[in-house]
Amino acid sequence: MSDTSAPSDNGVAVANIGVVGLAVMGSNLARNLASREGNTVAIYNRSREKTDQLLADHPEAQFVPAYSYEEFAASLAKPRTAIIMVKAGAGTDAVIQALTEVFEPGDIIVDGGNALFTDTIRREKAVRETGINFVGAGISGGEEGALTGPSIMPGGPEESWVTLGPILRSIAAVAPDGEPCVTHVGTDGAGHFVKMVHNGIEYADMQLIAEAYDLIRRGTGKTPAEIADIFAEWNTGELESYLIEITAEVLRQVDAATGRPLVDVILDQAGAKGTGAWTVQTALSLGVPVSGIAEATFARSLSSHPEQREAAASLPGPDEDFRVADADAFIEDVRQALFASKIVAYSQGFDEIRAGAAEYGWNIDLGAISKIWRAGCIIRAQFLNRIADAYAETPDLPVLMTAPYFAEALTSGQAAWRRVVVAATQAGIPSPAFSSSLAYYDGIRADRLPAALVQGQRDFFGAHTYKRIDKPGTFHTLWSGDRTEIEAEDTH
Ligand code: NBP
Fold first, then answer.
1. 442 backbone dihedrals φ, ψ, rounded to 5°
2. 0.85 cut: is pTM over it?
3. Which Gene3D superfamilies match (predicted)?
């Protein structure tokens, strides 16, 4: 922390970093920055109140306040470096425009909001024209992470990393091995792309945990508090993660007003801010099957249509109530099914990053990505070390779940996984993430798929042609008439 005073007092550019946007994320990030040795933080917010409030609440941070973009630019030492933490979308564009008018070539503008990566690509291109560096940085960990140490996924030009790297390393979460959870992900939109997939994986992980809870509760009759103990126990093994840990806390919580488990008084309609949908939309464009993430996103949508759910509530399910004979054995099966499905969800997510990197020309180190998610972010887990190991051993691994550690876990867990999906299906308990993950597993490992029949159908109605297993070329069958096969003309 510096003991220098504001430039409005003496006209000197004293801050090495600035934050624009002082709502919950920006103010916490500014406090985090100010608490690190060597940082002096300039702050600016569109409406003056938030700036004054932050100054009043945290004199220890010795912020350098600015009340105009000109004052903000004047308070920053060169190259000027500013992190924008405003509402994603039009607000971000407005702030970038204002900063480009007061910054100079070589300065750095960082967008730390949740921007769509294609917006970041567009913005980076436009800002580059001015000679200013633009960095889209995914920041994960919510308000607590912003204050104490988030996982940071910056994209942007390599040269910006020279100035920005040490600053971001100073505020990032620290993994158990001492490594800061930040790396230069790749150029332009790479950072926001990776943050988007992080959030998609988070959706899948949360849905899988919710399905595990539902199956145990309905299959064994255990109370939320008893299931909290099960999750706490799971958190000591291979499932150890922040999401499992907080699930135990949520399930243990009792509602003060009613005395009932809080989970039973929370309305069962899950919200979403859109990053799950972006992950799935992008995966569809890239042709990457992220079925676990997609089902998790759809499960939230399904839950949020009360009028449809009410209309469908009279449709029949299985006649008999679901109650397992051996509760302990079933719970262990669910644990194994959860781990297997989780491996699939992460494998699919990393597949999307691999495909995105190929499409957009980013050189993304997948092992480094798994490492920066080990602390600070919502999906932080022990398990991510295994992903780092897998990519360290085989950097061009085509499918993450085929790495030895994961293949062994799937081999030993698959019987339990199938039993759980069968039980859920027979009991009429929705388990879209469990069952779609298993279907992906069976699809990707299959020797032969019915895609051959789909190709036949496509050729029948649309002359879309097909390839054969026994000779090269592209073929079309004359389906009416004598049904002979001809080699399609566009093959050579
Ligand atoms: P919000 O997303 O609620 O945005 C509020 C801030 O945006 C205020 O400072 C507001 O200024 C400013 N702003 C707006 Br709105 N339009 C503006 C404009 N045209 N020009 C200048 N400033 C403008 O804040 P947040 O929840 O702190 O989140 C900040 C960013 O971080 C978002 O992109 C969010 O998606 C991302 N993020 C949030 C979380 C989280 O847990 N909340 C986690 C990870 C990432 P005002 O005070 O003058 O209205």
1. -70, -30
2. yes
3. 6-Phosphogluconate Dehydrogenase, domain 3, N-(1-d-carboxylethyl)-l-norvaline Dehydrogenase, domain 2, NAD(P)-binding Rossmann-like Domain
Q: Whose CA is nearest to atom 41 of ligand 1?
A: 142
8 A C-beta contact, residue 42 and residue 68 = no
What is the per-residue pLDDT across 246-304, written as a single tens digit (0 to 9) for each?
A: 999 999 999 999 999 999 999 999 999 999 999 999 999 999 999 999 999 999 999 99
Cβ < 6 A, ligand 1 pocket:
21-26, 45-47, 50, 85-88, 91, 94-95, 113-114, 139, 142-143
Residue 486 has a CB neighbour count (10 Å cut-off) of 10
Nearest to 434 by CA among 446, 409, 416, 417: 417
Q: Catalytic one among 124, 202, 211, 352?
A: 202
